[in-house]
């Protein structure tokens, strides 16, 4: 079945689904990192939810989890998309695939990600956020999001810490294996893609022990072919003359993403007093993209339907990027009487490599009688000469080669002692952690621009299948490479663009903490203090009036971070939670970049800011949870965050040392920001109803938040929302299952958010990402107790991605992807 819903849906449809999500909301799944999840040999939606809720009840933190069984039953291809079902979470999508995770409406760079307890560095050169689509869901045993940090945890997250735990042999009793194969079909591109995965674990007896040594392994491979269609203006609207457009571009993407993941884990438990483990994980993500584009830049801004003169262009981008993540964690625990000793050594490394792709091959020409129609999805209008390849001459070809590496080494030691305090059970815990992180970026750029008389005629590929208008023929990547292959590469090396993007950054963090847990009848109190000292160094190259300068910046700061957690048992099935925590989030590497370009003659400058202060936040959380039988919970949380030193992009022209400049683009710290919200949730299995209604399972959650922040530049101030913060995030899941069949319909909603801040005196050109509602479906049939046939339909409503300029009527970017259908077969043995 193929569904086409390219027209806008009625608003009532969105509101109805959201109303259902709000009607009964709560973390359907939650967990604490300190709680060991016990495997239940019943593969089912309700069993997975019930298992997670039992862990939530005893958790010391406010946290949420998706367990491996639940991951397998959600219509999700990767870890990021699985996490979007959790209360308060949404994902940033790239080409329709979930990549970065947002917690409680806050941007992904304000969260941290750990694998088996060690930090995951980011492959991208400018970010801290980890794109979780590089982690295939099959390699993951559990995904947890901790929203209130205890003092023994790293304090480097504002929204939450995402904890990834990989498979362990002690998650199952005896031999376990699972094998699966899938074929997915993308409706927009008409392509079918394969996927294969497998997992294995077993226990063995070493020495005098029985089943005391465990081995677990998981492997996943997928090669997905898909694409997208795009039209964008970049916000180039002239609102001073009645909303007239300056330029627009149509883009057609053809994409292949190949994912390979491997995990190999060992556990050794020689006796009841000690345990040791080695966790390894390797993930490779190869992204091949071909983008053909055609656009117009009007001589004078035009309104929809008008015609005039313009410069036209056609452009090709063809590149291949490979991201890799490696993680190795060695640790153990030993009981020494009333003392418990924990230790861990971790090493993780990520990288992104572009071996030298076409960053842009541009052809230009001049045209009369051009225009566009429509403001939301503008359609390019031009005469037949615009589609004649002889009308375009080759302007330049840019080739880019880059390599980014981010690695982190850490060692952690924790010591805890149980004791009695006037008849009440208590535990004191203290420890420390040393972390050493290094991030480097090396890029080389060549710009070939001596092509007089070379037109597009002999450099074409076939006609492009583009549904948002007329795009004509594509440009052949092999023909472009052949054209420049005979030229002397050294003659076209762009030293400025190459050197100013290179950097080496070191970030050393030393941490220590002390905390105490006290149980006073029905009240549990956790109080503690964490100290973190940060030393940061950045080296790079800048250019001032055509001359290169070596740059070096150093920054040191420390933080004392107190925390208090309370959990009170109101009754057998109801409990209250409260937490006051403090956290610190360091700027992204793109914001800290040491490179700069300063041109005094042109009065223009752009530069990073290695002296930015980290974001500091005091956080308050208060909630209530009521549990209702199997897989049932009602919960409500309120939260408040007081944030200092939030970071935004700004123009310092006209101020201080930039007083004589027309443009001085950089990043700066804002004064303060506030975020507050309400998080609601509900889940329940209706097993008390007569058949077939006893198989119904409902889960819903919604988070409502508001933010405000003040920015200042050029002597002006204005109030904005926190960038990337969505006011409303909601999920609705309707499921049904019995011993042979299971069905699940899942909807995920995210409201609009501020994506990019324009100049401080130009609010009309702020860019906003529009709201999105993704609906997915999955069905499973157990042919035998161990063999399951599954069918998935993702993005069945053909949701698009839309960014607008100031008001929803004015396009900045529109992109659509089409639905994807998957048929799979899974063999599982417990």
Automatic annotation (TrEMBL):
Position of the signal peptide: 1-30
TonB-dependent receptor plug domain residues: 56-161
Pfam families: Plug (PF07715), TonB_dep_Rec_b-barrel (PF00593)
Localization, UniProt: Cell outer membrane
Keywords, ordered alphabetically: Cell outer membrane, Membrane, Receptor, Signal, TonB box, Transmembrane, Transmembrane beta strand, Transport
Family label: Belongs to the TonB-dependent receptor family.
Classification via NCBIfam families: TonB-Xanth-Caul
Protein name (database record): TonB-dependent receptor
Lineage: Bacteria, Pseudomonadati, Pseudomonadota, Gammaproteobacteria, Pseudomonadales
């Amino acid at each position: 079945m193929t569904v086409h819903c390219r027209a806008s849906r009625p608003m009532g449809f969105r509101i109805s689904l959201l109303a259902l999500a709000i009607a009964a909301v709560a973390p359907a799944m939650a967990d604490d990192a300190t709680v060991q999840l016990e495997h239940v040999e019943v593969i089912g939606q309700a069993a997975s939810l019930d298992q997670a809720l039992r862990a939530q009840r005893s958790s010391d933190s406010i946290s949420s989890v998706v367990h491996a069984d639940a991951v397998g039953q959600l219509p999700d291809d990767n870890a990021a998309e699985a996490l979007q079902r959790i209360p308060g979470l949404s994902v940033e999508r790239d080409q329709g695939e979930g990549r970065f995770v947002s917690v409680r409406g806050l941007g992904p760079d304000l969260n941290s990600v750990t694998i088996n307890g060690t930090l995951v560095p980011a492959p991208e050169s400018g970010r801290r956020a980890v794109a979780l689509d590089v982690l295939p869901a099959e390699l993951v045993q559990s995904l947890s999001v901790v929203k209130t940090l205890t003092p023994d945890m790293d304090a480097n997250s504002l929204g939450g810490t995402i904890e990834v735990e990989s498979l362990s042999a002690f998650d199952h009793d005896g031999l376990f294996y699972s094998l699966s194969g899938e074929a997915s079909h993308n409706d927009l591109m008409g392509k079918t893609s394969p996927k294969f995965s497998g997992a294995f674990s077993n226990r063995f007896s070493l020495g005098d022990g029985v089943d005391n040594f465990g081995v677990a392994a998981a492997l996943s491979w997928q090669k997905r072919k898909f694409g997208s269609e795009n039209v964008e203006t970049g916000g180039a609207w002239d609102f001073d003359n009645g909303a007239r457009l300056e330029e627009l571009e149509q883009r057609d993407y053809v994409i292949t993403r190949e994912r390979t993941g491997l995990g190999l884990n060992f556990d050794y438990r020689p006796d009841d007093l000690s345990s040791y483990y080695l966790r390894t994980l390797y993930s490779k993500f190869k992204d091949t993209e071909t983008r053909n584009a055609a656009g117009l830049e009007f001589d004078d801004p035009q309104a929809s339907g008008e015609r005039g003169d313009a410069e036209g262009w056609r452009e090709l981008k063809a590149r291949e990027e490979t991201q890799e993540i490696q993680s190795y964690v060695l640790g153990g625990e030993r009981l020494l009487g009333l003392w418990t000793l924990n230790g861990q050594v971790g090493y993780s490394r990520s990288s992104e490599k572009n071996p030298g792709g076409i960053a842009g091959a541009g052809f230009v020409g001049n045209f009369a009688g051009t225009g566009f129609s429509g403001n939301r999805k503008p359609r390019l209008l031009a005469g037949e000469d615009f589609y004649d390849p002889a009308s375009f001459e080759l302007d330049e070809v840019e080739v880019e080669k880059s390599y980014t590496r981010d690695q982190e080494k850490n060692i952690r030691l924790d010591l805890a002692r149980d004791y009695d305090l006037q008849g009440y059970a208590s535990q004191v815990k203290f420890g420390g952690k040393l972390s050493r992180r290094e991030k480097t970026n090396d890029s080389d750029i060549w710009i070939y621009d001596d092509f007089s008389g070379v037109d597009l005629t002999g450099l074409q590929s076939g006609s492009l299948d583009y549904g948002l208008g007329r795009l004509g023929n594509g440009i052949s990547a092999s023909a472009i490479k052949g054209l420049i292959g005979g030229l002397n590469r050294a003659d076209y090396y762009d030293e400025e663009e190459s050197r100013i993007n290179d950097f080496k950054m070191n970030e050393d963090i030393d941490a220590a903490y002390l905390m105490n847990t006290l149980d006073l009848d029905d009240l549990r109190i956790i109080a503690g203090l964490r100290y973190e000292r940060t030393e940061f160094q950045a080296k790079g190259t800048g250019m001032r009036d055509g001359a290169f300068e070596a740059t070096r910046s150093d920054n040191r700061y420390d933080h004392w971070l107190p925390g208090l957690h309370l959990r009170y048992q109101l009754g057998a099935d109801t409990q209250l939670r409260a937490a006051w925590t403090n956290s610190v989030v360091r700027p992204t590497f793109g914001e800290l970049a040491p490179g700069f370009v300063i041109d005094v003659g042109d009065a223009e400058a752009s530069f990073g800011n290695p002296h930015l202060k980290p974001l500091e936040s005091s956080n308050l959380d208060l909630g209530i949870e009521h549990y209702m039988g199997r897989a049932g919970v009602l919960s409500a949380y309120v939260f408040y965050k007081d944030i200092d030193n939030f970071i935004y992009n700004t123009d310092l022209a006209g101020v201080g040392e930039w007083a004589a400049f027309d443009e001085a683009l950089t990043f700066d710290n804002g004064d303060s920001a506030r975020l507050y919200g309400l998080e609601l949730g509900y889940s329940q299995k209706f097993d008390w109803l007569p058949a077939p209604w006893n198989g119904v399972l409902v889960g819903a959650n919604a988070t409502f938040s508001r933010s405000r922040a003040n920015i200042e530049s050029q002597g002006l101030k204005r109030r904005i929302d926190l960038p990337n913060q969505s006011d409303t995030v909601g999920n609705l899941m309707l499921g049904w299952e019995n011993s042979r069949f299971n069905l699940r319909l899942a909807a995920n909603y995210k409201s609009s958010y501020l994506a990019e801040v324009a100049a401080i005196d130009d609010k009309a050109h702020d860019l906003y990402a529009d709201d999105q509602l993704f609906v997915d479906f999955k069905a499973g049939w157990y042919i035998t107790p161990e063999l399951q046939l599954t069918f998935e339909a993702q993005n069945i409503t053909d949701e698009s991605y839309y960014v607008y300029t100031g008001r929803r009527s004015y396009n900045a970017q529109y992109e659509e992807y089409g639905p994807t259908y998957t048929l799979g077969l899974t063999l599982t043995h417990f």
